[in-house]
Design brief:
Number of domains: 2
Helix content: 55-70%
Distance between the termini: 99 Å
Structural class: mainly alpha
Strand order of the largest sheet: 1-2
Number of strands: 2
Length: about 220
């Protein structure tokens, strides 16, 4: 059986015929198409297909490397936030804008990996850490304002000279903070240390100025 083949390549045309018989009968192709390509073109065509394969595998390799880079970025941001002093307001003023910028960059990169379970899981952990970070930051600022106002209400040296107003509903604030402490422990059990560091310590400081009972008050030395 004869087959007619017309091959068109850049700057090269060939019209050839060759026998293709079934190997079952002990016959093979009598003429190879490669033999009809000029010698000066064979190397060019070979590297053309080789480069295509190289680009394909490079794309797979780069995608895997990009994934590792994203995971490393998320791990580094997570560790930096987790290990910093959450009671240091000055530290937060300096670092939170930087962390938010890094987070925005990560969110753009993660869009290409929406179906990758490993990256999505790590991103959820990072989001959870940032949630509790900003919640405790607001609570810490609120406690600091309560403590500051309680000092100002006594005036200079506690003599009521140039004194400011006194908070009348302090018990409501304290009860709200105690309730919030319980809620955060249930919602974010992995971050109990950070909750104790900010909210627990804040309640312990309030107990130095106001008399109230608290279930966890004996966990602190003041």
């Amino acid at each position: 059986m004869k087959l007619s083949c017309w091959l068109s390549l850049s700057r090269f045309n060939c019209n050839t015929s060759f026998k293709v018989l079934n190997r079952k009968y002990g016959n093979i192709c009598t003429k190879g198409l490669y033999n009809y390509i000029p010698n000066n073109k064979r190397k060019e065509i070979f590297f053309f297909f080789l480069n295509d394969k190289k680009k394909y595998f490079n794309a797979l390799y780069n995608k895997e490397n990009d994934k590792k880079d994203i995971m490393n970025d998320m791990d580094e941001l997570y560790d930096n936030i987790l290990t910093c002093n959450w009671n240091d307001s000055f530290n937060f003023v300096l670092n939170v804008p930087i962390w938010e910028g890094i987070l925005n960059s990560i969110e753009e990169k993660v869009k290409a990996y929406e179906n990758d379970e490993q990256i999505i899981k790590k991103k959820k952990e990072l989001n959870q850490l940032l949630d509790i970070l900003f919640i405790l930051e607001d609570i810490r600022d609120h406690i600091n304002e309560l403590l500051e106002q309680s000092s100002r209400s006594k005036g200079l040296a506690g003599a009521h000279i140039m004194c400011s107003f006194e908070i009348q509903n302090m018990n409501e604030h304290i009860e709200l903070l105690k309730k919030k402490y319980e809620e955060l422990l249930l919602t974010y059990p992995l971050y109990k240390y950070q909750i104790d560091l900010v909210l627990g310590r804040g309640l312990a400081l309030l107990r130095q100025r106001y008399v109230f009972d608290w279930k966890y008050m004996h966990e602190y030395f003041f």
